[in-house]
Predict the 3D structure of the following.
Amino acid sequence: MRRGKAFGRGIAWGNRTGLALLGLLLFAAGGAALARGLGVFGADAARQPLLPGFVTAFARSTSWFWPVVAIGGVVLALIGLSWLLALLRLDRLRRIRLESGPSGVTEIGGRQAGEALAGQVSGYQGVRRARATLRGKPDAPALDLRVISQDPANPDALIARLHDEAVPDLRATLGMRRLPALVRLDFTTRKRTREVH
């Protein structure tokens, strides 16, 4: 399974990178403007207008320049906020489509399905905590399962049980022949992570 296709990791990484670069650029520009105003670059630079001369002259000659700049800033802030909120949603599925036909559509809650699987896995020996999230499209979901184990010495039995029991159980419950899954196995006693595809 290609994780980028199943979970949109490439898009999410691109969004995070874009936001980080934009944030760093704006932070650097704001820091440079503040430093200049405080006289870090010399008293003469602190007295000079921040904007080029023709922009300053244009702003003074019109009454609408600064209100338009303020409105543009608010619009950009709202776009950035909506972008951040979209990233926080992480394409979690609210509903999973089990059947679709002339007689109607059968759906199940994505959160409930994930909680049921997490509860099952949490009952396995040596598992401290499990969290399951279904992502992707309602008619083609993908599973993202994170399991925290207390037994780093012998993970093979747990991995086999996840592979042979937990994921197939959810696949059978949803009535799906194929359910791409990413299982992340973490350990509480030392830093060690294994990924099972």
Summary: The two ends are 7 Å apart (CA to CA).
